[in-house]
Model the fold of this input.
Amino acid sequence: MKETKQMMEYGVVVDPKTQTEPPDPTELQMGPDDPGHDDPVYVKRRQELFALCRKHRLEKLGPPTIEYNDDETRVWREVTPKLDELHRKYACAMYLKAKDELGITQKEIPQMKTLSEQLGKRPSKMHLVPAEGSLAYRIFYSYISDRGFPVTQFIRHKSKPGFTPEPDMIHDCLGHVPPLVNADYAAVLVLIAKAANASRDPFQVQALKRFSWFSIEFGLIEEQGETKVFGAGILSSLNEIPHSILDKGVKREPFVTDIVIETDYPHTKMQDHYFIIPSFAFLRREAEDLVKRFGIKV
Done:
């Protein structure tokens, strides 16, 4: 009798069906690790934005225009100057150029609708899709397959402006949006998304998720003899930027696809293992080779 291979994710055994049959919650779900879960005013605001952004996503209306309140603007103005200082030191050249070209400022929270229009005029031809919260990977990938990147529009709680347990506006706007300008970066995203949607093999989908995690979310790149950051999960974290580059207890190694797709990762704390790519063209070739090796038609 053939032994069924177990699927591990986040250090625990999971049902492979979660990779190919994802949930799509219709109501806001906030865990106890969210600093705002006991703040009724914040919860109500999150529920309102959840309903609005979900409506715009499902009805394909594009990102709604949000009138941000004083608390949200205060958090943005507190976090973004600190992030920008770290970006100038540790972010890759592609990211810095794109961030400057998009005109993302530290004073006002940008509208995702405006940024989406700007991206549409770039060679990558990406656009932004409103997301009510963190979307299941397969749903997330379904939008990227059509060159749409799902982005949230809520702001983390004011009590802990340096922390968010799930992707928020700061993570998406300052982490994911600028690199979407780059054609190779966008091509990797779209290819992984199309492959993940086309495959019915949950282990292939998991491998593609890991490829994306250790590159798009938490990737490092070698530039002129220095290691720089390009992963969105790092770029949007005040603590993880210096941690990823300077911490001596962290493992950093060259990006080898066969190692990457067999490596599990934590999703609720800073990473202890990073992979370094030599270029975005390299990452694109590796993604193309992986999809071809899996025999996935895209």
